[in-house]
Protein backbone atom coordinates (compact mmCIF):
# COMPACT_ATOMS: atom_id res chain seq x y z
CA UNK A 1 0.00 0.00 0.00
CA UNK A 2 0.68 3.59 -0.25
CA UNK A 3 3.00 5.56 1.93
CA UNK A 4 6.28 7.41 1.89
CA UNK A 5 8.56 7.20 -1.11
CA UNK A 6 11.21 4.56 -0.50
CA UNK A 7 14.86 5.30 -1.03
CA UNK A 8 16.30 1.86 -0.46
CA UNK A 9 17.84 -0.46 -3.00
CA UNK A 10 17.47 -4.23 -3.21
CA UNK A 11 20.05 -5.66 -0.85
CA UNK A 12 21.86 -8.94 -1.37
CA UNK A 13 21.15 -11.78 1.02
CA UNK A 14 23.40 -11.79 4.03
CA UNK A 15 23.61 -13.71 7.28
CA UNK A 16 20.49 -13.50 9.43
CA UNK A 17 19.09 -14.96 12.58
CA UNK A 18 16.55 -16.65 10.36
CA UNK A 19 17.03 -18.82 7.29
CA UNK A 20 15.47 -16.50 4.76
CA UNK A 21 13.37 -17.85 1.94
CA UNK A 22 14.99 -17.52 -1.51
CA UNK A 23 13.92 -14.44 -3.43
CA UNK A 24 14.34 -13.42 -7.04
CA UNK A 25 13.99 -10.02 -8.67
CA UNK A 26 11.68 -10.47 -11.67
CA UNK A 27 11.30 -6.89 -12.83
CA UNK A 28 12.23 -3.36 -11.86
CA UNK A 29 10.38 -0.34 -13.23
CA UNK A 30 12.70 1.90 -15.23
CA UNK A 31 12.01 5.02 -13.18
CA UNK A 32 11.56 3.25 -9.87
CA UNK A 33 7.90 4.24 -9.76
CA UNK A 34 6.02 2.53 -6.96
CA UNK A 35 4.17 -0.72 -7.47
CA UNK A 36 1.12 -0.94 -5.28
CA UNK A 37 -0.84 -4.14 -5.56
CA UNK A 38 -1.27 -7.26 -7.63
CA UNK A 39 -3.62 -10.09 -8.50
CA UNK A 40 -2.96 -13.37 -10.28
CA UNK A 41 -5.10 -14.54 -13.20
CA UNK A 42 -5.92 -18.23 -13.69
CA UNK A 43 -3.59 -18.07 -16.72
CA UNK A 44 -0.83 -17.29 -14.17
CA UNK A 45 -0.34 -13.80 -15.59
CA UNK A 46 -0.09 -11.06 -12.99
CA UNK A 47 -2.12 -7.86 -12.92
CA UNK A 48 -0.23 -5.03 -11.27
CA UNK A 49 -1.23 -1.57 -10.09
CA UNK A 50 0.88 1.50 -9.45
CA UNK A 51 -0.02 4.61 -7.46
CA UNK A 52 2.04 6.54 -10.01
CA UNK A 53 0.05 5.52 -13.09
CA UNK A 54 -3.61 5.07 -14.11
CA UNK A 55 -2.64 2.13 -16.34
CA UNK A 56 -3.23 -1.44 -15.22
CA UNK A 57 -0.18 -3.54 -16.06
CA UNK A 58 0.29 -7.22 -16.78
CA UNK A 59 3.35 -9.45 -16.41
CA UNK A 60 3.65 -13.07 -17.49
CA UNK A 61 6.15 -14.85 -15.23
CA UNK A 62 6.16 -17.83 -17.61
CA UNK A 63 7.27 -15.75 -20.62
CA UNK A 64 10.85 -15.89 -21.88
CA UNK A 65 11.77 -12.26 -21.31
CA UNK A 66 8.78 -11.02 -19.37
CA UNK A 67 8.12 -7.33 -19.12
CA UNK A 68 5.31 -5.02 -18.07
CA UNK A 69 2.57 -4.57 -20.66
CA UNK A 70 -0.31 -2.09 -20.50
CA UNK A 71 -3.77 -3.61 -20.12
CA UNK A 72 -6.08 -0.62 -19.76
CA UNK A 73 -5.74 3.04 -18.78
CA UNK A 74 -8.50 4.47 -16.62
CA UNK A 75 -9.69 8.04 -17.30
CA UNK A 76 -9.74 10.83 -14.68
CA UNK A 77 -7.21 9.06 -12.48
CA UNK A 78 -3.49 9.31 -11.81
CA UNK A 79 -3.04 6.10 -9.88
CA UNK A 80 -4.43 2.69 -9.01
CA UNK A 81 -4.61 0.92 -5.66
CA UNK A 82 -6.30 -2.31 -4.56
CA UNK A 83 -7.25 -5.06 -7.01
CA UNK A 84 -9.13 -8.33 -6.56
CA UNK A 85 -10.80 -11.06 -8.63
CA UNK A 86 -14.59 -10.96 -8.21
CA UNK A 87 -15.52 -13.68 -10.74
CA UNK A 88 -13.31 -16.01 -12.78
CA UNK A 89 -11.07 -13.67 -14.80
CA UNK A 90 -13.06 -10.54 -13.83
CA UNK A 91 -11.22 -8.11 -11.59
CA UNK A 92 -12.20 -5.01 -9.63
CA UNK A 93 -9.69 -2.21 -9.18
CA UNK A 94 -9.60 1.13 -7.34
CA UNK A 95 -8.73 4.16 -9.51
CA UNK A 96 -8.44 7.73 -8.25
CA UNK A 97 -6.64 11.06 -8.26
CA UNK A 98 -4.18 10.36 -5.48
CA UNK A 99 -2.06 12.96 -3.74
CA UNK A 100 0.83 10.95 -2.35
CA UNK A 101 2.04 13.92 -0.30
CA UNK A 102 -1.17 14.51 1.60
CA UNK A 103 -2.12 10.81 1.43
CA UNK A 104 -5.57 11.62 0.14
CA UNK A 105 -7.72 11.16 -2.90
CA UNK A 106 -9.36 14.12 -4.62
CA UNK A 107 -13.03 14.38 -3.61
CA UNK A 108 -15.21 12.56 -6.10
CA UNK A 109 -12.29 10.92 -7.90
CA UNK A 110 -12.53 7.41 -6.44
CA UNK A 111 -14.05 4.82 -8.76
CA UNK A 112 -14.23 1.05 -8.68
CA UNK A 113 -13.75 -0.34 -12.16
CA UNK A 114 -14.27 -3.89 -13.29
CA UNK A 115 -11.97 -5.40 -15.91
CA UNK A 116 -13.45 -8.43 -17.64
CA UNK A 117 -11.02 -10.75 -19.44
CA UNK A 118 -13.71 -13.27 -20.44
CA UNK A 119 -15.18 -11.19 -23.29
CA UNK A 120 -12.52 -11.66 -25.95
CA UNK A 121 -9.02 -10.62 -26.86
CA UNK A 122 -9.30 -7.16 -25.32
CA UNK A 123 -10.60 -6.93 -21.75
CA UNK A 124 -13.68 -4.81 -21.12
CA UNK A 125 -13.37 -2.07 -18.49
CA UNK A 126 -16.55 -0.80 -16.83
CA UNK A 127 -16.95 2.00 -14.32
CA UNK A 128 -18.90 0.11 -11.70
CA UNK A 129 -19.18 2.28 -8.58
CA UNK A 130 -18.04 5.58 -7.15
CA UNK A 131 -17.04 6.28 -3.51
CA UNK A 132 -17.47 10.07 -3.36
CA UNK A 133 -16.81 10.36 0.37
CA UNK A 134 -13.62 8.29 0.43
CA UNK A 135 -10.61 9.69 2.30
CA UNK A 136 -8.03 7.31 0.87
CA UNK A 137 -9.50 4.24 -0.80
CA UNK A 138 -6.71 1.71 -0.59
CA UNK A 139 -6.86 -2.10 -0.43
CA UNK A 140 -9.68 -4.02 -2.11
CA UNK A 141 -11.07 -7.47 -1.37
CA UNK A 142 -13.46 -9.60 -3.33
CA UNK A 143 -16.10 -11.34 -1.22
CA UNK A 144 -16.15 -15.09 -1.89
CA UNK A 145 -19.70 -16.18 -2.68
CA UNK A 146 -20.88 -12.66 -3.51
CA UNK A 147 -19.44 -11.54 -6.86
CA UNK A 148 -21.54 -8.36 -6.81
CA UNK A 149 -19.69 -6.63 -4.00
CA UNK A 150 -16.17 -5.66 -3.05
CA UNK A 151 -14.83 -4.29 0.23
CA UNK A 152 -12.49 -1.31 0.11
CA UNK A 153 -10.23 -0.17 2.95
CA UNK A 154 -10.29 3.57 3.65
CA UNK A 155 -6.92 4.23 5.28
CA UNK A 156 -7.53 7.77 6.47
CA UNK A 157 -11.21 7.58 7.46
CA UNK A 158 -10.42 4.26 9.14
CA UNK A 159 -13.31 2.19 7.85
CA UNK A 160 -14.34 -0.36 5.25
CA UNK A 161 -16.59 0.53 2.35
CA UNK A 162 -18.78 -1.96 0.54
CA UNK A 163 -19.30 -1.22 -3.13
CA UNK A 164 -21.80 -3.12 -5.24
CA UNK A 165 -20.24 -3.39 -8.70
CA UNK A 166 -23.56 -4.46 -10.27
CA UNK A 167 -25.79 -1.65 -8.94
CA UNK A 168 -23.18 0.97 -8.01
CA UNK A 169 -24.54 1.19 -4.46
CA UNK A 170 -21.95 2.11 -1.81
CA UNK A 171 -22.23 2.01 1.97
CA UNK A 172 -20.03 1.93 5.03
CA UNK A 173 -19.63 -1.77 5.73
CA UNK A 174 -17.68 -1.73 8.96
CA UNK A 175 -16.26 0.98 11.16
CA UNK A 176 -14.07 0.12 14.12
CA UNK A 177 -11.36 1.83 16.10
CA UNK A 178 -9.01 -0.99 15.02
CA UNK A 179 -9.31 0.40 11.48
CA UNK A 180 -8.53 4.04 12.24
CA UNK A 181 -5.12 5.70 12.20
CA UNK A 182 -3.92 6.73 15.65
CA UNK A 183 -4.42 10.37 14.79
CA UNK A 184 -2.93 13.28 12.93
CA UNK A 185 -0.47 13.88 15.76
CA UNK A 186 0.98 10.40 15.27
CA UNK A 187 4.06 9.69 13.19
CA UNK A 188 3.56 9.86 9.42
CA UNK A 189 2.17 8.12 7.51
CA UNK A 190 -1.22 8.30 9.19
CA UNK A 191 -2.58 5.22 7.51
CA UNK A 192 -5.03 3.01 9.33
CA UNK A 193 -6.60 0.00 7.65
CA UNK A 194 -4.54 -0.82 4.60
CA UNK A 195 -4.76 -4.35 3.18
CA UNK A 196 -7.92 -6.42 3.66
CA UNK A 197 -9.08 -9.86 2.57
CA UNK A 198 -12.20 -11.90 3.24
CA UNK A 199 -11.73 -15.59 3.94
CA UNK A 200 -14.22 -18.13 5.30
CA UNK A 201 -16.65 -15.43 6.37
CA UNK A 202 -14.04 -13.40 8.24
CA UNK A 203 -12.49 -10.08 7.35
CA UNK A 204 -8.71 -9.96 7.87
CA UNK A 205 -6.99 -6.56 7.75
CA UNK A 206 -3.81 -4.70 8.55
CA UNK A 207 -3.60 -1.29 10.20
CA UNK A 208 -0.27 0.26 9.26
CA UNK A 209 -0.04 3.02 11.84
CA UNK A 210 -1.34 0.90 14.70
CA UNK A 211 1.03 -1.88 13.60
CA UNK A 212 -1.63 -4.57 13.77
CA UNK A 213 -3.00 -7.51 11.82
CA UNK A 214 -6.52 -8.41 12.89
CA UNK A 215 -9.68 -10.25 12.01
CA UNK A 216 -13.34 -9.62 12.59
CA UNK A 217 -16.54 -11.43 11.70
CA UNK A 218 -18.39 -8.98 9.40
CA UNK A 219 -21.66 -9.99 11.04
CA UNK A 220 -20.44 -8.38 14.24
CA UNK A 221 -18.31 -9.25 17.21
CA UNK A 222 -15.05 -7.99 18.57
CA UNK A 223 -11.96 -7.40 16.48
CA UNK A 224 -9.26 -9.93 17.34
CA UNK A 225 -5.65 -8.88 16.95
CA UNK A 226 -3.49 -11.63 15.44
CA UNK A 227 -0.11 -10.00 15.00
CA UNK A 228 2.08 -6.93 15.40
CA UNK A 229 4.19 -5.16 12.82
CA UNK A 230 4.19 -2.33 10.32
CA UNK A 231 2.20 -4.20 7.71
CA UNK A 232 0.98 -3.20 4.28
CA UNK A 233 -1.07 -5.63 2.18
CA UNK A 234 -0.93 -9.41 2.57
CA UNK A 235 -2.28 -12.65 1.20
CA UNK A 236 -3.68 -15.79 2.80
CA UNK A 237 -2.43 -19.22 1.77
CA UNK A 238 -4.49 -22.41 1.49
CA UNK A 239 -3.94 -23.16 5.16
CA UNK A 240 -5.22 -19.74 6.13
CA UNK A 241 -1.81 -18.37 7.09
CA UNK A 242 -1.12 -14.73 6.28
CA UNK A 243 1.97 -13.55 4.41
CA UNK A 244 2.38 -9.86 5.08
CA UNK A 245 4.44 -7.18 3.35
CA UNK A 246 6.30 -5.64 6.27
CA UNK A 247 8.32 -2.53 6.97
CA UNK A 248 11.13 -3.52 9.30
CA UNK A 249 12.80 -1.11 11.70
CA UNK A 250 16.33 -2.07 10.72
CA UNK A 251 16.02 -2.70 7.00
CA UNK A 252 14.24 -1.89 3.75
CA UNK A 253 11.58 -4.48 4.46
CA UNK A 254 10.58 -8.10 4.60
CA UNK A 255 7.82 -10.62 4.86
CA UNK A 256 6.02 -11.76 8.01
CA UNK A 257 4.15 -15.07 8.29
CA UNK A 258 1.30 -15.25 10.80
CA UNK A 259 -0.76 -18.32 11.58
CA UNK A 260 -4.17 -17.16 12.86
CA UNK A 261 -4.77 -20.59 14.43
CA UNK A 262 -1.79 -20.37 16.75
CA UNK A 263 -0.99 -16.63 16.62
CA UNK A 264 2.56 -17.70 15.77
CA UNK A 265 4.34 -14.83 14.01
CA UNK A 266 7.75 -14.86 12.40
CA UNK A 267 9.76 -12.99 9.82
CA UNK A 268 10.45 -15.27 6.86
CA UNK A 269 12.15 -12.76 4.61
CA UNK A 270 14.34 -10.30 6.47
CA UNK A 271 15.89 -7.13 5.08
CA UNK A 272 15.88 -8.07 1.40
CA UNK A 273 12.58 -6.62 0.21
CA UNK A 274 12.62 -2.99 -0.71
CA UNK A 275 9.51 -1.42 0.82
CA UNK A 276 7.13 -4.28 -0.03
CA UNK A 277 3.52 -3.28 -0.72
CA UNK A 278 1.57 -6.44 -1.50
CA UNK A 279 1.79 -10.20 -2.01
CA UNK A 280 -0.06 -12.86 -4.02
CA UNK A 281 0.56 -16.55 -4.67
CA UNK A 282 0.90 -18.03 -8.14
CA UNK A 283 -1.96 -20.26 -9.26
CA UNK A 284 -0.81 -22.78 -11.84
CA UNK A 285 0.88 -26.01 -10.83
CA UNK A 286 2.57 -27.10 -7.63
CA UNK A 287 5.64 -24.94 -8.10
CA UNK A 288 3.78 -21.74 -8.86
CA UNK A 289 1.37 -22.10 -5.98
CA UNK A 290 4.42 -22.05 -3.70
CA UNK A 291 5.71 -18.93 -5.41
CA UNK A 292 4.76 -15.71 -3.73
CA UNK A 293 4.86 -12.61 -5.91
CA UNK A 294 5.62 -9.35 -4.14
CA UNK A 295 5.32 -5.77 -5.35
CA UNK A 296 7.43 -3.04 -3.81
CA UNK A 297 7.13 0.71 -3.52
CA UNK A 298 10.58 0.93 -5.09
CA UNK A 299 9.12 -0.47 -8.32
CA UNK A 300 10.20 -4.07 -8.02
CA UNK A 301 8.39 -7.29 -8.71
CA UNK A 302 9.98 -10.06 -6.67
CA UNK A 303 9.21 -13.77 -6.33
CA UNK A 304 9.71 -15.65 -3.08
CA UNK A 305 10.07 -19.43 -3.07
CA UNK A 306 7.99 -20.45 -0.05
CA UNK A 307 8.45 -24.20 -0.54
CA UNK A 308 11.13 -24.27 2.17
CA UNK A 309 8.64 -22.95 4.69
CA UNK A 310 7.09 -26.36 5.27
CA UNK A 311 3.97 -25.48 3.31
C1 LIG B 1 16.77 -9.27 10.60
O1 LIG B 1 17.92 -8.54 10.23
C2 LIG B 1 18.29 -7.55 11.18
C3 LIG B 1 19.42 -6.73 10.60
O2 LIG B 1 20.44 -7.55 10.09
C4 LIG B 1 18.65 -8.25 12.48
O3 LIG B 1 18.97 -7.29 13.48
C5 LIG B 1 17.44 -9.07 12.97
O4 LIG B 1 17.79 -9.83 14.10
C6 LIG B 1 16.98 -10.02 11.89
N1 LIG B 1 15.71 -10.64 12.32
C7 LIG B 1 15.49 -11.96 12.21
C8 LIG B 1 14.18 -12.44 12.69
O5 LIG B 1 16.29 -12.71 11.75
C1 LIG C 1 -0.92 17.48 -2.49
O1 LIG C 1 -0.92 17.72 -1.11
C2 LIG C 1 0.05 18.66 -0.70
C3 LIG C 1 0.08 18.67 0.82
O2 LIG C 1 -1.20 18.86 1.33
C4 LIG C 1 -0.28 20.02 -1.32
O3 LIG C 1 0.68 20.97 -0.95
C5 LIG C 1 -0.31 19.87 -2.84
O4 LIG C 1 -0.74 21.08 -3.44
C6 LIG C 1 -1.24 18.75 -3.27
N1 LIG C 1 -1.08 18.51 -4.69
C7 LIG C 1 -2.09 18.59 -5.54
C8 LIG C 1 -1.76 18.28 -6.96
O5 LIG C 1 -3.23 18.85 -5.20
Automatic annotation (TrEMBL):
Record's signal peptide: 1-17
Keywords, sorted A to Z: Signal
InterPro entries associated with the record: 6-blade_b-propeller_TolB-like, Hetero-Diels-Alderase-like
Protein name (record): SMP-30/Gluconolactonase/LRE-like region domain-containing protein
Lineage of the organism: Eukaryota, Fungi, Dikarya, Basidiomycota, Agaricomycotina
Amino acid sequence: MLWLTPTFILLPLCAHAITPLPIKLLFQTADGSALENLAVRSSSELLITSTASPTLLTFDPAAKNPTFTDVVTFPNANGLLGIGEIRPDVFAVVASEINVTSLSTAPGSVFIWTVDFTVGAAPKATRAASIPKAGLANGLSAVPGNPDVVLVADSTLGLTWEANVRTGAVRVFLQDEAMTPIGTSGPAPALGINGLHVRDGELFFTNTQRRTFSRVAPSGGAVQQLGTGEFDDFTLDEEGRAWLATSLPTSPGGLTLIDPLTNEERIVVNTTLNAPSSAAFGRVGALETETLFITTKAGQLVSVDTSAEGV
